[in-house]
Specification:
Elements: H1 8-11, H2 20-43
């Protein structure tokens, strides 16, 4: 999951079908997931 580019929603063309607000939300969710994975990996 950490290897997924931060801008993947834009790379796969979702910006053509989804509003900018939803795009920001998707990017933010991806960043949060990555942060949580890094935090859990560091705590192990």
């Amino acid at each position: 999951m950490l290897g997924v580019p931060d801008d993947i929603p834009f790379r796969i063309g979702l910006s053509q079908a989804v509003s900018p607000l939803r795009m920001r939300g998707m990017v933010a969710m991806l960043a949060r997931i990555k942060r949580q994975i890094r935090d859990k990996s560091a705590g192990s």
